[in-house]
Amino acid sequence: MIRLGIIGTNWITDQFIRAALSTGQYTLNAVYSRSLETATQFAEKYQVSNCFDKLDEMATSGLIDAVYIASPNSLHAEQARVFIQQGIHVIGEKPLASHIQEVQDLIALAQSHGVVLFEAMKTAYMPNFAVIQNALPKLGRLRKVYLSYCQYSSRYPKYLQGENPNTFNPAFSNGSLMDIGIYPLSAAIGLFGEPNSLTAQGVLLDSGVDAHGTLVLHYKDFDVTLCHSKVSDGYIPSEIQGEQGTLLVDFISECHGVHLHRKGEPVVDLTVEQDDNAMVYEATEFARLVAERQINHDGLLRTQIVSAITTQARAIMGVRYPADDI
User: Fold this and answer.
1) CATH number, domain with residue 38
2) How distant, in Å, are the alpha carbons of 27, 86, 167, 253, 288 from that of 157?
3) Fewest Cβ atoms closer than 10 Å to its Cβ: which of 102, 136, 139, 145?
4) DSSP character at residue 166
5) pLDDT 10s digits, 95-130
6) 83 and 134, same domain (yes or no)
7) In this structure, are 107 and 24 located in the same domain?
8) Do residues 164 and 207 touch, judged by C-beta distance below 8 A?
9) Do 34 and 53 contact (CB within 8 A), yes or no?
10) How many domains does the chain have?
11) 107 belongs to a structural domain
12) How do residues 279-325 score in pLDDT, each as one tens digit?
């Protein structure tokens, strides 16, 4: 049983806790927030009495085996280091860190301390993502791929009113690509590996982060076009086109539906049933890695490739974070 501590008290933390507890492989043992009152109020929902407002105290308490980090993006690397140095396994929300150097430094640190470091990229561990992977040979030679995730942010009206919410604030290493564009990007890397080259375009807000953009990954025989936006809603499915057929995927971040269109054949619904809480699968995989002490796992390579691409794409778009100077 993994004794879990959590950093962050927002909706995504609630969702992960429910997912983790449902696997039967975790107990929630500690809660951290910058405010002890906030931590206590959140912990009451789960009948947890160990609350902290100082990271080092939770890291050295002896109460936890692993920590789930769901703080603002810019804090992920700094907070992960505190726990890795105490021999505590880390599952960090995407993106694992602000840029590729931070990711590489964290991986080296985790390996030197013999702990599992894991990015909570739920898409890669979902049953329907495996369906997509298995169906790729049925498409023949790949030619065109379009992956899209566009979702109007609930915080955008506040930004338009002159406020500076985290999601549009470069101080928190945020913006469209890092917040939601990372989902189709990670899916592309999981399916096709590292591209030969890339091109990137983004429309920046006055705050300095990207409101929306397009990223194109160039492979030998095909391109992958990734569309992302936090200022508009998208409803079209993603497509993977080959010479013999096409896969349509509904809502690429969670792969709600997978349909195969092969030339001259009826459409086939390949969708398999998935848990309503998509985070169950990443929680299960993290528990497996911890149980088997798999310090070097496949997810780390995907995380490194994705981080290298987002770092390069941001440089092309002109999106710079304070974390880039650290």
Assistant:
1) 3.40.50.720
2) 38, 41, 12, 24, 41
3) 136
4) G
5) 999 999 999 999 999 999 999 999 999 999 999 999
6) no
7) yes
8) yes
9) yes
10) 2
11) yes
12) 999 999 999 999 999 999 999 999 999 999 999 999 999 999 999 99
The answer on 144 and 41 residing in a single domain is no
Buried residues in 190-216 as b, exposed as e (16+ CB within 10 A): bbbeebeebebebebbebebbbbbbbb
The pairing of beta strand 117-120 with beta strand 89-93: parallel
Residues 95 and 47 in one domain: yes
* 130 shares a domain with 26: no
34 band by pLDDT with thresholds 50, 70 and 90: very high
Give the pLDDT confidence of 199-223 residue by residue, as tens digits. Answer: 999 999 999 999 999 999 999 999 9
Say if CB 30 and CB 64 are below 8 A apart: yes
Domain that holds residue 129: 124-275+307-325
Amino acid in position 176: S
- Residue in the block written with tokens 């095909």: 222
Cα 320 to chain center, whole Å? 20
CA-nearest of 62, 6, 4, 11 to 28 is 4
